[in-house]
Amino acid sequence: MKKYLFWLLLLVATLNTSAQKYVLENGVIIFFSEAAIENIKAENVKTGSMLNTQTGDLAFSVPIREFQFEKKLMQEHFNEKYLESEKFPKSTFTGKMTGFDNTVKGIQQVKAGGKLTIHGVTTAVEISGTAEVQSNKIILKSKFMVKLADYNIKIPQLMWQNIAEQVEVTVDFTYKPQ
Q: Hey, which CATH number is domain 22-177, 1.10.150.120, 2.40.128.110, 3.40.50.720, 1.10.230.10?
């Protein structure tokens, strides 16, 4: 937890201090794997994130062990066999959001381009989503696919019918001014 807080504080310190900064008030990341035998869903509400509306800088950090599953065994396998959360304790995104105007009320189509790190592997991504200004809050939502092979997450041959080769990730973040 100390490492997580240190990372978030470091991120805060590196953003331009004169810009309009927002911090995550509440957020959830859900992943969903649809497979032939069994669907797998997990939810994480322990994410940290910052948004700088002047520069478009966007970053978030997700502690892997905080994903909650319906079945304890799924959670154990996820952490030990697939995401190896002892070795790779977090997933991160750093990048820029484009297409957003914080003076416009209502839902706007936006994109976030940057680097997504999962399982110790970093790839360049461009993710589409929406941003909505509501009074002094900003709500970001996105749904995108992640290919497990792109992040060196291996599915054992015996489990190919239980786990999809790609998973759907849903992000729903509400930010407040810092």
A: 2.40.128.110
The 10 Å CB-count burial string (b at 16+, else e) for 149-164 is eebebebeeeeeebbb
pLDDT tens across the length of the chain (178 residues): 555 545 555 555 544 443 499 999 999 999 999 877 788 899 999 999 999 999 999 999 999 999 999 999 989 989 998 899 999 999 999 999 999 998 888 899 999 999 999 999 999 999 999 999 998 899 999 999 999 999 999 876 655 556 788 999 999 999 999 9
| Backbone φ and ψ of 24, nearest 5° | -70, 120
Q: Residue 106 contacts by C-beta under 8 Å, 6 or more apart in sequence?
A: 132, 133
- Global pTM reads 0.84
Rounded-to-integer distance, Cα 87 and Cα 120, Å: 8
Question: Is-contact 40 53, C-beta < 8 A?
Answer: no
Q: At residue 117, what is the residue type?
A: T
Alpha carbons 52 and 55: distance in angstroms, whole number: 6
